[in-house]
Amino acid sequence: MRSVHIPQDTILYVDGVTKSFDGFKALNSLSLILEPGQMRAIIGPNGAGKTTMMDVITGKLRPDEGTVFFNNDIDLTQHDEAEIANIGIGRKFQKPSVIENLTVFENLELALAGRRGVFESLIHKLSSSDNKQIGDTLALIRLADKQDWQAGSLSHGQKQWLEIGMLIMQEPQLLLIDEPAAGMTDEETALTAELFKELAKKHSLVVVEHDMDFVKALDCPVTVLHEGSVLAQGSLEQVQQNQQVIEVYLGR
Ligand SMILES: Nc1ncnc2c1ncn2[C@@H]1O[C@H](COP(=O)(O)OP(=O)(O)OP(=O)(O)O)[C@@H](O)[C@H]1O
Fold it and tell me: Which of 54, 77, 124, 189 has the fewest Cβ atoms surrounding its Cβ within 10 A?
């Protein structure tokens, strides 16, 4: 058994992770620590390794080297994607994948079913606590007045919120979210930042984003990736003043 020293109380512990594609290191000894209840924005130029990092955390890719632990002692490199989702890590891809011809409410109901297994959901009606959970989620994602709308008739931003609501139904401890603000109006972007701050009260969040106004609104620590490693870390203001960050990313 490997002996790894993990600082106490980490929700995500990534250390020395390397992942190569045909000899090219998409991740190059990447290390990153997230504490429970923390929100972290990940920024960096195209090809910096942000998606590959998410793929490694969620079990889509296995690292060539390095350590990835969840909740102090769960070695994520020993689990597949489905197991990692069940362990409590939810991932939101850039493009929303709500079911367009179901209502907002039904999409959330389906997400609840996903947690339980479809068969069990077919034979059980929604309990009052299920209804409350759906109601709370609808309020959180600001779609309470649209619960009977077909998901296909929502705006792009509203679809993104619905999908985040569907993830929340599964009560993940850690949420990984890829470019949520892309394609949103300014108003939706501002509301999404508010939603994430609300989410961060109950969940840990890793948010990959290119929109600096959105990152500023998140008001959380920022990690800058470059060539598969961490280039800088700190407040947005601090990393914006970092000369190397300006050279490889912000100044371009
Ligand atoms: N399956 C793959 N096969 C070969 N190369 C890959 C593969 N996946 C990623 N790469 C390469 O690894 C590097 C990192 O890619 P990655 O998608 O993780 O970057 P990123 O930071 O998410 O970029 P973006 O901001 O454009 O989404 C890129 O050079 C990419 O071409």
Answer: 124
